[in-house]
């Protein structure tokens, strides 16, 4: 497949590029600055300036965008607005690297992880910003999108186990009572779902088995 990875220079982006390349896909890195990946080709452009023409011809676009400072947190929504507008009505699928804070704690979906009393206050702003991005994405009906939430403990230095649990909207623990996944196993799971093409306009989640 022809896959574009937006924000390919980030930790998750670089590993998604590598995983897709290792499987023989053609991968274009879309980056704002000098490319740090081994992608097949490169488009150097700010995500907010991407157009329909820039994204034409790809089977899948992956947004690995992340923002962490108070002034940039709203970009978790604005970047998705740009991407969904550019892809609207096309056959290109959009995969979004999401967050865990918006996962629900009950099947009735009455309480989210970030609303729990023991949720770390330091992570609340980013969790709320990413949740707003997901809320916006749920309003998009003219595009095949998949929002992929990692486990609560998303480890950038974790090892590749090759094993993971695919879950849905509800916060899930493994047999050890943990919610953890490495960036590299997350990349594995995401590319698996790109290839499987099982979900449309849904949020899924992944954690280490």
TrEMBL record:
Pfam families: NAD_binding_10. InterPro entries: NAD(P)-bd_dom, NAD(P)-bd_dom_sf, Polyketide_Oxido-like. Residues 8-193 form the NAD(P)-binding domain. This is NAD(P)-dependent oxidoreductase. The lineage of its organism: Bacteria, Bacillati, Bacillota, Bacilli, Lactobacillales.
